[in-house]
Amino acid sequence: MQLSSTWSKSRVGVVAILCGLTLAVSGCGNGNSSSNSSKTLVYFMAPNTTPTRYIQQDGPDFKAALEKLDPNIEVKFVNGGGNSDTQLSQANSAIAAGAKALVVVAADPNTSAGLLQAAKQAKVPVIGYENPPLKGPMYAQVIFDPKAVGVEQGTYFAQQIKDGALGSAPVKVARLYGNKGDVYTTQMLAGQNQVLDPLIKNGSIDVVCEDYVKDWAPNNAQAATDQCLTKTQNKVGAFLGFYDGITGGTIAALKAKNLHIPVYGGQNPELTGLQYMLTGDQQDDVLKAFSVEAEAAAKITLAALQGKQPPADLVKDSVDNGGGQIPTANLPSTLIHLQKGVDPGTIVQKAVDLGIFTWKEICTGPAVSTPTCKSKVG
């Protein structure tokens, strides 16, 4: 969700933004710092430093979009450090500092109800963002439809099974899901299963390992992969993940053992995911133009501040979050995948076109010596 020009402009203040986003785990400042009293104060509440997108992309893009819509708005940032209690404390501090709206990516959706109740009591609207809070009232939320993402991943993986690309049936598959209980995890899993359950039932797929990855963290994914490889004596036909951090953890475990097992299930693109597509270690990725989501959230936030209904051109659905029906903007995503005989750079170019990352950023780390990067950046 990001146009290249928007991202370039937003980077000017990224150092200051990073300081705000790392608030919970560093000494950059605190949520009660004084604000320009003539400004309307809005807080963007990131969940953690992983995924990296909320710090490096969504946060700066949201700030740029909202302050462009209304220059009298000031956006501040906090980072929950992966802890709901910390995020609740930050929400209370933001409210005490005069925040008129909170845009929240939940540190742990399963234990986020307290934040929603605190905001309700203070009559401060909450806009859920991508991995929103659960079990409480919100003004609205904006997400990339997680079930649709799961269907995209499952459909491509199922086609690989049917085409025999992973060998004869049954294909031994290891599945690594996201953080247990997250809306995104449950909905993505429902989407994947919608497509894969028939293949599991007819014996085309043999699920030899499955596990949830706490906090979606790459190191936890790497540990789960190691456990699966030990359990199966390395006899796995393919790994199917949920997100680039998870696939990255799996690939790290495989490389440590010098194993070459195909890895699927990239999503929420990070540099590692796109880099591993260039090296051939990751087979697919679901692209999300982050700035589009940030801009949608900015428009929804402005409507909340103005006391209006969520904009009907964006908010067309509703989702039960366990505390009621939440008006929801479901955004579309796009799956890309490697193709035999096609330059992977042609595939990854789609991510560049969406402004998610530049070639200069992608062509670092494991991708630096690939033919694509040698041609793109020298």
Describe this structure in words.
α8 packs across α9 (244-256). By secondary structure, the protein is an alpha/beta fold. The chain has 14 helices and 13 strands. α7 (183-201) links the parallel β6 (171-177) and β7 (205-212). The protein has 2 domains: 4-138 and 289-331, Response regulator (Rossmann fold), CATH 3.40.50; 146-288 and 339-376, Rossmann fold. It has a 7-stranded mixed β-sheet with strand order 2-1-3-4-5-12-11, with helices on both faces. It has a 4-stranded parallel β-sheet with strand order 7-6-8-9, with helices on both faces. A two-stranded antiparallel sheet has the order 10-13. It has helices spanning 4-10, 14-21, 53-69, 84-96, 113-122, 146-162, 183-201, 218-232, 244-256, 271-279, 290-305, 344-353, 359-362, 371-376, and strands spanning 40-46, 73-79, 101-104, 126-129, 140-144, 171-177, 205-212, 238-240, 263-264, 284-287, 317-320, 325-331, 334-337.
In short:
By secondary structure, this protein is of the alpha/beta class. The chain has 14 helices and 13 strands.
Features:
378 residues, alpha/beta, Rossmann fold, 2 domains, seven-stranded mixed β-sheet, four-stranded parallel β-sheet, 14 helices, 13 strands, 43% helix, disordered N terminus
Q: What is the CATH-assigned architecture of the largest domain?
A: 3-Layer(aba) Sandwich
Helix content: 40-55%
CATH fold-level topology of the largest domain: Rossmann fold
Strands, total number: 13
Strand content: 15-25%
Strand order of the largest sheet: 2-1-3-4-5-12-11
Mean pLDDT: 91
What is the CATH C-level name of the largest domain? Alpha Beta
Helix segment count? Answer: 14
The ordered string of helix (H) and strand (E) elements is: HHEHEHEHEEHEHEHEHEHEHEEEHHH
Overall 3D geometry? Answer: globular
Distance between the termini: 28 Å
Number of domains: 2
Computed Rg: 21 Å
CATH superfamily of the largest domain: Response regulator
Structural class by sheet pairing and helices? alpha/beta
Would you identify the regions where 5 or more consecutive residues have pLDDT less than 50? 1-34
Largest sheet features:
7 strands, mixed
